[in-house]
Specification:
The structure holds two protein chains of two kinds. By secondary structure, chain A is an alpha/beta fold. Chain A has helices at about 50-60, 80-85, 100-110, 140-160, 205-225, 245-265, 275-280, 300-315, 330-360; strands at about 45-50, 120, 125-130, 135-140, 165-170, 175, 200-205, 230-235, 270-275. Chain B is about 40% helix and about 10% strand. Classes of the chains: A alpha/beta, B alpha/beta.
Chain lengths: ~375, ~290
């Protein structure tokens, strides 16, 4: 039987009216033919813009083997470690909004890019790292340098140990200075001093984003050839734009560039896949119900939908809430060891204090 | 404060050594009785200086046991079914009516964090101890402070309770500084550590001193905010680096001996005299006594 036209008999998902999700938005599943599966043994590292935090949290909750290369000090309790932003991503990098920022982080970690930028001073007098100004504060330059060196060492550890890198592209707009270093936040927002004569606004083009993405991927593969990549685009609109135009227009422009760059990068590399979280959240099917009251933040129902689809395709046989494998033993086990240590020392001190209260011979 | 001399003191039983129970019966029975009934059995005891605390109180307890000073009453909280810190309650405090309340509560939090080496060895900057172990993980001060703050929460609430319950001049006495000698620690702690399944490896002494000083700073800040006078480590008992000098140690890894306690009592006497003369560093702030609820 011959086809009357090339669209006859195509898969339902290729046809808007037949693809699930129009009548019932929860059935929307735009992911087709993933290039690989994520195995329980795969060490998954997440990074990117703020939406990536949701991805990391849900992957962890669903038992993925999440790689946390940069853990908090062993004496910190889990809630305190979280407060200091350990475990949010594979390293304590904070949000990485642009592909140039990712590329530079990797190069800085391996000593291939050193813009020679020290700590910024915040309004409260504390110091912060210009490359992650909202992650940590320091009381001295030496304390800052030590923690940055530790962080970059952990970025190297992540690169050399990960199996799957899930990167969420967030922005094309960025700020730089004469060094070429890309700042995640404009100087003056969370530290540092904005100097219009030094600081420059950038808005990356499709070609620039693709170049940076490919360079970052090649950089990681050169040190860890078997790594697979999942690229996503954050559906979260820009908070503000550096261009004199409506922020919505800047948002659609930015997201369009990122979406094209992610596709182009994935199309050119079998180890790179594109996952349509952006589409799930912004689809007309959802009629905006996955955005919060601020029309910007993504609500939990939206995140759950994204992760349900993610699990369905990358962890075959698992559904949201199921556990394809054991959670990463590293951080949990380390935190457990620390808790056991603390309890044991408590017991010792308690015993000693009992002795002290009872014993009047040990003068 | 009424002038009381040593000659007034009743020697048997030693009036300085206070008991956590009202009369000699089971503590459980006492806890079941309403406070009003207890008050009927025995009214709150008036005391010039009431010292209450946990294990570090032993240093002054030992002095007063052998050499009573009727100005002082010391209550060393015994171990009960609850944690010793939890024993310090409005119910217990209501049994005494001091002119000056002295806390020797807590004081081991820095030891919990750093006496025995953590699974991941660390160091941090403390301006007063300019030594850094670069081969260890250098942790930002904010993280160490956050953890110490958390560990000190329970102890601080009890010191605060003392001030708020009595509304009288209140003093907190810091625990003694660390002992630098790891051999001393091994001799007196090694067996405990092994029995608890821990390697008896001790955090380097300078780091233990940093933890001690940071902990003291946190407590001092809270005391100042509450109008509580903070007494730091006894200067006379420090070695040249700020550790507990050998003559003040005992067969124990963290506590000081009675010789140290004698200096603490001297400092408290000086404070009490200053209060009497109206010149105490932190005189009774107008703090209404806490209405007890237990």
């Amino acid at each position: 039987m011959t086809q009357r036209h090339p669209y006859e008999g195509i898969a339902y998902y290729r046809n808007w009216r037949r693809a699930a999700g129009v009548a019932n938005h929860t059935e929307l599943d735009p992911m087709v033919n993933p290039k690989f599966a994520i195995l329980p043994s795969d060490k998954v590292a997440t990074s990117g813009s703020c939406f990536a935090q949701h991805v990391a949290r849900h992957l962890k909750a669903n038992g993925f083997n999440i790689l946390i290369a940069e853990e908090g000090p062993s004496f910190l309790t889990a809630p305190l470690a979280r407060e200091f932003q350990y475990g949010v991503y594979a390293t304590r990098s904070g949000n990485i909004y642009t592909s140039r920022q990712l590329r530079q982080l990797l190069e800085r970690a391996y000593g291939l890019f050193d813009p020679g930028i020290g700590a910024w001073t915040r309004e409260d007098g504390m110091l912060c790292d210009p490359f992650r100004p909202q992650v940590a504060t320091y009381e001295s330059e030496s304390e800052f340098r030590a923690d940055r060196a530790f962080h970059l060492a952990k970025v190297r550890e992540m690169v050399e140990n990960l199996s799957v890198f899930v990167f969420t592209l967030g922005l094309t707009e960025a700020w730089t200075d004469e060094t070429g270093a890309i700042y995640p936040l404009a100087p003056g927002v969370a530290g540092g001093t904005y100097d219009p004569t030094r600081h420059r606004f950038l808005n990356f083009s499709v070609d620039e984003v693709v170049d940076d993405l490919r360079a970052a991927i090649a950089f990681i593969k050169a040190r860890n050839p078997s790594v697979k990549f999942v690229l996503t685009v954050s559906p979260v609109p820009l908070m503000a734009t550096g261009i004199d135009r409506h922020v919505l227009v800047s948002t659609t422009h930015s997201k369009a560039i990122l979406r094209v760059a992610a596709q182009a990068t994935a199309d050119a590399d079998d180890a790179v896949d594109y996952f349509p979280s952006y589409e799930i959240i912004t689809a007309p099917h959802t009629r905006g119900r996955y955005f919060g009251p601020d029309a910007r933040s993504v609500n939990e129902a939206g995140v759950n939908h994204v992760m349900r689809v993610f699990l369905k395709h990358y962890a075959p046989g698992a559904t949201s809430g199921a556990r394809p494998g054991k959670a990463a033993a590293g951080p949990k086990a380390a935190r457990g060891a620390s808790a056991r240590h603390t309890k044991a020392v408590e017991d010792i001190v308690e015993v000693l204090c009992d002795e002290e209260a009872l014993d009047d011979t040990r003068r | 404060m009424a002038a009381v001399t040593k000659s007034d003191a009743v020697t048997t039983p030693n009036p300085c050594i206070l008991d956590a129970k009202t009369i000699d019966w089971s503590a459980d029975m006492e806890k079941r009785l309403p406070r009003m009934v207890l008050r009927g059995l025995k009214p709150a005891r008036k005391l010039p200086v009431f010292v209450i605390g946990l294990s570090h109180t032993r240093s002054v307890y030992d002095v007063l046991k052998d050499d009573p000073d009727p100005r002082f009453g010391v209550l060393l909280i015994p171990k009960g079914k609850r944690s010793r810190l939890d024993e310090i309650s409005p119910r217990l405090l209501s049994r005494f009516e001091p002119e000056i309340a002295v806390s020797m509560i807590g004081g081991n939090e820095h030891n919990l964090l750093g006496l025995i080496e953590q699974p991941e060895p660390f160091d941090f900057e403390e301006p007063s101890v300019p030594i850094m172990f670069e081969d260890r993980r250098i942790v930002p001060r904010a993280q160490v402070r956050a953890m110490l703050n958390l560990m000190l929460t329970g102890m601080l609430s009890k010191v605060r309770l003392l001030k708020r319950f009595y509304g009288k001049p209140t003093v907190h006495v810091a625990s003694p500084p660390p002992i630098p000698d790891n051999e001393h620690l091994a001799q007196h702690l090694g067996a405990f550590a092994k029995s608890a399944g821990l390697e008896p490896r001790f955090t380097p002494a300078p780091i233990r001193l940093k933890l001690y000083r940071m902990g003291n700073q946190i407590v001092k800040e809270m005391c100042e905010a509450e109008g509580i006078h903070f007494i730091g480590p006894m200067e006379e008992a420090l070695d040249e680096n700020g550790f507990l000098a050998a003559p003040y140690r005992k067969a124990d890894p963290t506590h000081a001996n009675a010789r140290y306690g004698a200096h603490v009592l001297d400092a408290l006497r000086a404070y009490a005299d200053a209060v009497s003369a109206g010149g105490a560093p932190h005189p009774a702030r107008v703090t209404p006594p806490l209405e007890s609820t237990s």
